[in-house]
Every structure is written in C-alpha cells, then in structure tokens.
Design brief:
The complex is a heterodimer of chains A (316) and B (305). Chain A has 316 residues and is an alpha/beta fold. Chain A is 35% helix and 26% strand. Chain A has 11 helices and 14 strands. In chain A, α9 packs across α10. Chain B has one domain. The chains are: A alpha/beta (316), B mainly alpha (305).
Chain lengths: 316, 305
C-alpha cells in the first residue's frame, strides 16, 4: 500500500433507507494496522461495511484499497475478508470443506484452496478438529472457523464484526491474540467492528467512531485519548504533602489537582518532562514515591467523543 | 459498558503457523463462480443416501424394469378395454415409464430442491456467499445448475437409455430409422421433467426460511393442489387440470410418444395446454427465485444497521 492510497477513503458518503439517513456525508481517509470501528447500535457501522463491500447503492464515494466500491465491488470482495457477527455456515459441512469452498468462491484454484483452508484452520487453532462437522462445534470454535474462512483467500483487509462475541475470557484472549498477530504475520490490515471497548484498547492502533450516522472521530488511539494520552499527564504519589508539591508545580506552569493528601494529578506544560517534577520536588525538599502516566481509557474517550457535544470535524 | 480489562501478562494461546506465503497466482474469473456453487451443490447432495441416491435407485430400477419389459415382452400387443387402441410392449414401455421417473424426480425435488434456498436463508449462508465476489445470479445459476445435473440423471438419463434400448430392438435399418424419433422425444420429455423439478421446488424454497415448511409447501402444491385441480378439470371439463404438474408431464409424454393406452388422468388434458402450463411454471419459478435471492442479497451482510 502506498502512502497515496489509503486503506479506505470516504467522500461525502451517504446512505438513505427511505426516510432514514443511515450514514450522513462521511468524509475520511482511514489507515492503520488494526482499526476499531466503534459506535452504539444504529450508528451506521453495518451500513458502512455493506457500502465498503459494494453490496448496497450509496451516494458519494467509498474507496477500498483505491477501488470504488460502487463499480469494483466484486474485485474488492476478492481482496477483503469478512467475518460476520452472526453464524454464516453451510449445514453439514466440516471446517475444511467450508474453508475450501470459501477460497474457491473467492477465485482460488481447487488445489490451492485446499492447501490454504488447512493452513488457515491450523492458524486459527482448530488443528485436528477441522475435519468435524461445524454443527458440533462450540461457540469458540465457530468463531475460529469464521476467522479462518475470512482469511483463507489471503485478503489484504479483514473486516471483523464482533469477533469476540459470546466467548469465554480465555477464548476471548486467544482470539484477540490471533487478531493482534495478523497484521505482522499475514500482512493484512484489520477493521474491527465491536462494542467491546477493552478489545479495542488492547489490539487497535486506530479508531473510527460513528454516532447517528456521522463520523465523530477518525485517527489513532493516542489521538482519541487526546491530551490525556500524552506523557505529560501524571499521577504523582508523594511521601507527605501533596499540596506543597502542587504549589511548586503550579508555579512552574503545570495544572494540578489534589486527589488525596499524598496523591496529585498533574498536567505538565506541553514542552515539559518528568524532569521538571523531580527538580521542583528536590528543590522543595519533597520526596516522590511514584509517578504514573495517566492515560484515559478508550472507553472514557469513546463516551467523551459520542457525548452530546456537536459532531467534530471528522478528519484528524 | 464493561470495565477495561488488563491484557494478560504473557501469551495465552499458541499461534500456529506452517509458514505463510501471500498468494501470488491468478484468480479465476468472477464469471466462473457459479460453477463452484454448482459443484458444491452436487457434492453436498451426493453425500447422503436419502437425499439423492435413493431416488436415483428408483430411477435405475424403473429403467431396468421398463428395459426388461421391452426385451422380454417385445412383440406382445396390449389393447385398451374398448379394444380401440393397441401397442406393442416395446413401444409402450418408454412412455409409461415416464410417470415413474416423474415420481423419482419429485422425491429429489422434495429432499433437495425444496430445501436449498430456505436452508441457506436459515443458516446465514447468504452472508457467506455475498461477502465474496458471488453475485445473486451466480448463486441462482449455481444452485439451479446443480439441481439440473442431479435431476437430469433421473429424468433425462433414464428415458434416454430406454430410447436407445428401443432402437436396439430394431429388426432392420428401416425399423431403426422409423424409431429414431424416440431419441429427441426422450430428450424433450426428459428436459421438461428436469426443468420442472429443478426450478419449481427452488422457488418454493426461496419463499420460506425454514426447510421443513418449504418442503411441506412444495409437497402440498404438487400432490394436494395438483390432485384437486386435476379432479376439478375432469369434473368441469376445463383447462384447469393442466395446473397439475405430474399429470401435465404425463400427458405431454403420452402425446409425444403417441400412446393411446392407459392414459388415466392425463387423457383429459390438452397436451399443448399442458406444455404451456409447464413452461409458465418454470418461468414463474425462475422469476421468484431471482427476485427473492436479489432481495436477500441487499440485506445479506452485517444485518440491519
């Protein structure tokens, strides 16, 4: 992928179902290794995915891998893998048969399809169970099959829709580990549509947030966290008098908030580093017991972004 | 909203990788994907004995019995009760066997055809298909193609074998040439049966997302509705009886092979109207399947927003 060709680019993309405007004039260039697509129910995420796969007509432009989805839908779907939220299996098939069939439907020759089906299922951790009928699988195994069938034709982008839904904590961890490993090992980018913000926090490097059919945020996770994502947001624990430290740091241009008698939340000036804190504390004769960089959780940032505030400019 | 969960300290699972290489070969043209769907349809249907093999066995038995009658009772003449019509067993065996091929065809249409689209609608398979470069027409063509191949093994192959068997009984070249017309006629009636039992149950299966209900609906249409309209047609001496597909196929077969004996319910039908009815059924069925699949395609991926 060249810099000039983003994974996904949208220009005044709109989709209307009757009187309902499902997505409203989306403008964005989306790049990254693992991109979280976030938004409450009805935000327009599924409609956006359908538009990107070229499955529904829309107004405006939607390009995936540089191809316009309206006119190159089939070509895009050959280069994109889709893991749906709901079950999408064929009755009576084993995982190997399903993945082989999936690869052939994406244009791979039969022999290549069989090899890649085994490879994808092995990668997804199904091992010998790949020969059993899918109807007999547990929820975790079915999720793995869904991931394997999305991977089997060697896509350049994977659209994963709620991949950890219904999984127990261990299976969820394993699934997230697989997802996090994919860009490095398979060289594909991932668009992860999910409600589970801890999942996004754990694996995503970029985020797209939608609300009421509009884009509220497009950018990196650090940008999503805004100022609170920088290393200038600190939580400082002192031995005795946090108020005294607050006084000297405020004098140095920092913004301080007393959390407890011995704990202080500090926002340093943009150009400052931890060194400022240590120097001022030493000068004031105060002993610092610990410094933690405060990071806003993705969940808190998400709630802030989709709050009642008017929509921001979507482009970072 | 759940609380943030700290990532586990170490890896919790094992990444299995046999050594990945990006696929650099060419991909098959999008216009050929229907063949993949067709091949899968045939393979899946062949897996279980009760879906296809049992009906195929019925067709094979029919062929053996009709062929045996042809050879053993070759010159035996049969007449109707009034004595007005007569035929040799060799000539009567093929047209009379059609109703048995029709029965076998109906069984396959019930166990496979009437379940295809409804099964896919229920299992979420439309998402599986349409998230790939499979177009609705590829899906319809593939499923239909698969059904046509399976059905042709029953409705077309059997009559064709019998037609060739009849040619084999010819005493001389003159008789052989005189009976040569049986081959295209067997192909024609075989194709009609194949088309009916491939398309009409497929249309029923696209109407309901429950395989059992769509099977029941198709069976009710073919058996119960067919019997009712056939009875109504005989009582009222009207064309309505041609809506009974089984009798219509029988009437066309008997007329094609010019058999005046044992016409039963088919004797009351005008073969031309029967042919029109069969073709209209096929046309309407194709339109319904295409419409339903296209409609499902629009909402097939990702659910409603």
């Amino acid at each position: 992928m060249t810099e000039a060709t983003p994974l996904i680019s949208l220009s005044t993309l709109s989709k209307r179902y009757g009187n309902i405007l499902a997505i409203d004039r989306l403008d964005a260039r989306v790049d990254g290794k693992i991109i979280g697509l976030l938004g409450p129910n009805g935000a327009g995420k599924s409609t956006l995915l359908k538009a990107l796969l070229g499955l529904i007509p829309y107004e405006g432009g939607a390009r995936v891998l540089g191809l316009e989805a309206r006119t190159h839908g089939a070509e895009i779907r050959d280069r994109v893998g889709y893991m749906p939220e709901q079950e999408a299996f064929l009755a009576g098939m084993s995982a190997v048969e399903l993945c082989t069939y999936a690869a052939e439907l994406s244009g791979l020759p039969h022999t290549e399809a069989i090899q890649r089906a085994h490879s994808a299922l092995y990668y997804a951790g199904l091992e010998e169970k790949r020969y059993q009928p899918i109807d007999t699988y547990s929820t975790g195994m079915k999720q793995r099959v869904k991931l394997a069938q999305a991977l089997v034709h060697d896509p350049e982008i994977l659209f994963l829709d709620e991949p950890t839904n219904g999984l127990d904590p261990r299976s969820r961890d394993e699934m997230l580990e697989l997802i996090a490993d994919l860009p490095e090992r398979r060289g594909c980018a991932i668009v992860l549509s999910t409600h589970l913000l801890p999942d996004v926090e754990r694996v995503c490097d970029h985020a797209v947030i939608m609300h009421h059919g509009r884009l509220r945020f497009v950018g990196s996770i650090d940008e999503l966290r805004g100022a609170r994502g920088r290393d200038t947001e600190l939580l400082i624990e002192v031995k005795a008098d946090a108020a005294a430290l607050a006084e000297v740091l405020t004098a140095a241009g920092a913004t301080c908030e007393l959390v407890t008698l011995v704990t202080l939340a500090v926002s340093l000036p943009t150009s400052a580093t931890n060194e400022l804190v240590f120097r001022r504390a030493r000068e004031a004769g105060l002993q610092i017991r610990g410094i933690t960089v405060r990071r806003e959780s993705v969940e808190a940032a998400f709630l802030r972004v989709i709050g009642d505030a008017p929509a921001q400019d979507a482009t970072p | 909203m759940s609380a943030p969960v700290a990532p586990p300290e170490g890896p919790v699972g094992t990444i299995h990788d046999l050594g990945y290489k990006r696929y650099a070969g060419s991909r098959l043209a999008a216009s050929t994907r229907w063949r993949v769907v067709m091949r899968n349809q045939i393979t899946t249907s062949w897996k279980t004995w009760w879906r296809f093999k049992s009906s195929l066995a019925l067709a094979v038995i029919t062929t053996f019995i009709a062929g045996g009658v042809m050879f053993i009772l070759n010159d035996k003449v049969v007449r109707d009760f009034a004595g007005a019509a007569a035929s040799t067993m060799a000539d009567a065996a093929l047209p009379k066997s059609i109703e048995w091929y029709t029965r076998a065809g109906f069984l396959v249409s019930l166990t496979i055809g009437a379940r295809i689209v409804s099964g896919d609608l229920r299992s979420g398979a439309f998402t599986f298909y349409f998230a790939r470069s499979v177009r609705p027409r590829d899906y319809v063509l593939g499923k239909l193609g698969g059904m046509v191949v399976l059905m042709a093994l029953i409705s077309l192959a059997g009559p064709l074998v019998l037609a060739f068997a009849r040619l084999g009984l010819s005493q001389d070249t003159g008789q052989l040439l005189a009976t040569l017309h049986l081959v295209p006629k067997a192909i024609a009636i075989g194709l009609l049966g194949t088309l009916v039992f491939s398309t009409v149950p497929l249309a029923f299966s696209s109407l309901i997302a429950n395989a059992r209900y769509s099977m029941a609906l198709w069976a009710a249409y073919y058996l119960v509705f067919g019997w009712m309209v056939s009875l109504l047609g005989r009582v009222s001496k009207s064309w309505i009886g041609v809506l009974d597909l089984a009798t219509s196929l029988d009437a066309i077969a008997l007329d094609l092979f010019d058999l005046r004996l044992f016409r039963g319910r088919a004797g009351h039908l005008d073969p031309t109207l029967a042919l029109i009815s069969v073709l209209v059924h096929v046309g309407v069925a194709l339109a319904i399947v295409s419409f339903q699949v296209r409609r499902a395609h629009g909402s097939g991926v990702g659910g409603a927003s």
